[in-house]
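Let us practice reading a record.
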Amino acid sequence: MSTPGAAHEDAASIKPATGKLGIMIPGMGAVATTLIAGVEAVRRGFAKPIGSISQMGTIRLGKRTDGHSPLIKDFVPIADLNDIVFTGWDIFGGNLYDAAKTAGVLERDQLESMRPFLESIEPMPGVFDQHYVKRLTGQKVKVGKNKCDLANQIRNDIAEFKTKTDRQVMIWCGSTEIYLEQTEVHQTLEVFEKGLVNDDPGISPSMLYAWAALKEGIPFANGAPNLTVDIPALRELSKKMNAPICGKDFKTGQTFIKTVLAPAFKTRMLGVSGWYSTNILGNRDGEVLDDPESFKTKEVSKLGVLEHIFQPDLHPDLYGDIYHKVRINYYPPRGDNKEGWDNIDIFGWLGYPMQLKVDFLCRDSILAAPLALDLCLFMDLAARTPGLRGLGIQEWLSFYFKDPDTAPGVYPEHDLFIQSMKLKNTLRHIMGENLITHLGLEYYGE
């Protein structure tokens, strides 16, 4: 075990979470309003923060026989929920009570109990271009002479918010943008910033928010699958400004289940011949993904999971010929209550076939909101931790994403349980505690 003195010395290098933490959200729709209303409900004692690892998770320290497993929020110096202040941008106008009513996630009585608080938050006009999200029409949008001007307007909004808060993080909860591949404008910060002035079509609105946040030294997380901060130019800016970044696309429903089941098949060396996934979704996200260009962005994010978990190059007999299909169907009557249906064709001893069918009737924003909260709290922690903030990419937060970001040349880890171990071991590491390997030989020696 680490000595108490060593643990104290490591932990002492982390700046304390004093003052107010400002959470800035581009896209204040279903996920954002569910997050904000939920945090307020927890602060008032109306509800428990179920689904939040940072609030309800525990972390084992030392041996199993030591019986020492504090709450994560009591172990690492993360911000207190009472110290969080919210702001953000949206393209539809109205306050957050209006937005939450439109989203239709939370029950009327619950919303009414927090109505004054939600009405007190009115999003700022957003940066929007219909070229990148075909199915939406902006009603309250910023106007500028070019993308550089728009990005600097976001920086001005951030500067104003900085006068009211002590630290800030930004998390994209906006709609999925069209599929973009990396081009020359994404390769260096210098070329990217020239592209802002020249209105380069490879620079989407989400990239403007990411650039503005990182320029201000603010951590940035992406809850959608669009190409945003996962480009060399913004990775360069992240490191230059010591502003942490991480992966993209909240791992909520169907992909969450995949990252549980696929490792189980691989661990048992059971083969998979096919995995068919379809989703029925009726909220604004479903409407946006009804556009083929936005769907492709989501499809690429969802399809990558199995290949990285199964490693078909290492196990060609088991996973070398998988037929993997993903579909999303917009079905308005479902609203935010999504249905994820999977048919999995597996095979076992002597090649005999079997099937597994999963029907997950889930609530999209209910699953996403605690992930967004954790990401904001942990990104803020990373920004205050000398051993983490200079890394740029926070791979230890892979747990929260369909598409984790990694250093160039390093494949992402998708196995949920390995991701969980990576997250908790990172917290032990920054606090000067021994890592947990689960070897367990110490219980059986002389």
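A brief commentary: The CA atoms of residues 271 and 317 lie 8 Å apart.
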